[in-house]
Amino acid sequence: MIDVYGNIMRQNYTLRADDNLRVQNPSDVNNDGIVNIQDLVLVAANFTRMGQNIADVNNDGIVNIVDLTLVAAALGGSAGAPLARHNDQEIAPIHTEVREWLHQARQINLTDSTFQRGITMLEQLLTSLTPKETTLLPNYPNPFNPETWIPYQLAESANVNISIYAADRKLVQTLALGHQPVGIYESRSRAAHWDGKNTLGEPVASGVYFYTLTAGDFTATRKMLIMQLIFLQTLFESIVIGILVCLVHENAR
Questions:
Q1: More confident residue, 229 or 169
Q2: What mean pLDDT, rounded, does the chain reach?
Q3: 173 forms bridges with which residues in the sheet?
Q4: Residue of 58, 71, 152, 226 with fewest CB within 10 Å of its CB?
Q5: Given pLDDT bands bounded at 50, 70 and 90, which one contains residue 4?
Q6: pLDDT digit string (tens) for 164-212?
Q7: Per-residue confidence (pLDDT) for residue 92, from 0 to 100
């Protein structure tokens, strides 16, 4: 068995006649049958660890950038293995991480074809994590109550602010996100978060609001809708009353 740190733990198991034997690919670090971004992240999480460790792909006694590059070389080697971003963005590496991996890999003087392929795959991964243009994306969930996430992409590093306005264009809240590097900010752990409160810490009323992303010279605005529970209840009651009125009129004919 493998613990969360990649350490190998012994476990006795009796082999049955109907068991299928499969030789594990060393690059398939988490042994799920496919080499993908998860394996890269697991190796990176174990950097500098010494001794017996499943993330030590080349079995040299230490987990380092060589192991990660060898895993990168195997990306795409299994059917359906992704070459770019992983579907689960919460665990996918970010632009700055991959850029640092690539920098470290290039510092190693290895001309081995497998290692060089690993560098090429890291280059492709970095490209996939580099937006071609800065973009403000739709918030989610929308409509929402009481909180929402505002995703965006940065083609250049910039100081990022998100201003939230009411329908009358009065400023409700400002999310000062500070200086952000190039990258994709879409997952809940990376997107901007708004708790549905104004600058005084008070929950805002239901209705339409606008959010504006300012990143360097870039500015874009989108619309969102907050629906508080009391608003939803009132809306539901109005719909029910409307249906009943229609039924009464229909029966009166």
A1: 169
A2: 85
A3: 164
A4: 58
A5: very low
A6: 999 999 999 999 999 999 999 999 999 999 999 999 999 999 999 999 9
A7: 81
Show the tokens assigned to 9: 């733990």
Strands 152-154 and 148-150: unpaired
Q: How far apart are CA 29 and CA 40, in angstroms?
A: 8
- Domains of the chain (ranges; CATH) run 37-128 (no CATH), 135-230 (2.60.40.4070)
| Residue 215, strand partner residues | 160, 218
Q: pLDDT tens digit string along 13-48?
A: 454 555 554 457 899 999 988 998 999 999 999 999
Q: Is 248 left (phi over 0), alpha (psi -120 to 50) or beta?
A: alpha
User: Are the C-beta atoms of 62 and 112 separated by less than 8 Å?
Assistant: no
- pLDDT of amino acid 239: 72
Closest CA to 70 of 32, 34, 105: 105
